[in-house]
Amino acid sequence: MKNLFSNPRKVIAALVAAAGLILAVISGITGNSIPSLLGQAVAAPFKAVGAAMNGMAQTYYSYMFRYEALAAENEVLEERIAEMEDVAREADSISRENERLIQAQELMDDNPDFVLVDAYIIGWNTANYEYTFIINRGLTSGIQTNMCAVTAEGQVVGLVTYAEDNFAEITTVLDSTLEISGTISSSGYNGMIQGGYVDGNDTLLRMNYLPSSSIIRNNDQVVTAGSAVYPKGLILGSVVDAGFEETGVAKYALLNPAAQINSLEQVFIITSFTSDQTVTTPTEPEQTTPETTAPVTETTAPQTTG
Predict the structure, then answer these.
(1) Cβ neighbours around 301 below 10 Å, total
(2) Among 75, 87, 94, 305, which lies 20 to 30 A Cα-Cα from 198?
(3) Which CATH superfamily is domain 114-274+293-298 in?
């Protein structure tokens, strides 16, 4: 036996004989010839590979078909979401417009001499302190130069400085070229208000030529003094700081504009009013805190030495 396995030729011959015997037994059981069984044995691996490739192809096809279906569904969903977002934006815009129109109606109810024309902002120009914007109404809507623009709450936005048939230009209170006579409501002190040149904060207004003896407090409301252009009592802003002019002869106050200029969508042009009537604007409950009602620290007038 030991000599049998030590000879490779004898081992191979034994294996061949065993394989032949196995094939003969299988042939007898299945009724297939030995060549047929050999052919099946040789073809079996190739059939397995083919079946695996066919399964992969079917899986890939199903995946691609499902992917295309999902892509189409996703596109439809994105379109529906976009439509819903458009509807939501339009609803928000309509809601804001309705709220402004209600407030404007209240302003006209309180000031029956007012004639208001509403307009939407369609363009801006903020270069070199030229705080101006364009509205979508003009001469054909009764809008002319030197008419006052306000918010629905009666806050001063600016002045019509140019008008064509279907559009007009508004110069806002933030522009340094615009001067408005104003009054501190609580004290009656008068001064001239300008914007656009406060170093470090060009969104503030400056009220000049206030008496040197005036007492100015934070959050004091400032309104228009009244003129042929600006009705009396329109809200201009509130005091955030104060000090003495360089000469020491008069005081000035810095104001936070009442109108949120940079977030405006719609304005109202006062095309007609009675100049001797004080504007009545809707008031809100007064909220006071120790920080907001404390007097502004007064700056001592500079001493001059001869």
Answers:
(1) 15
(2) 305
(3) Rod shape-determining protein MreC, domain 2 (2.40.10.350)
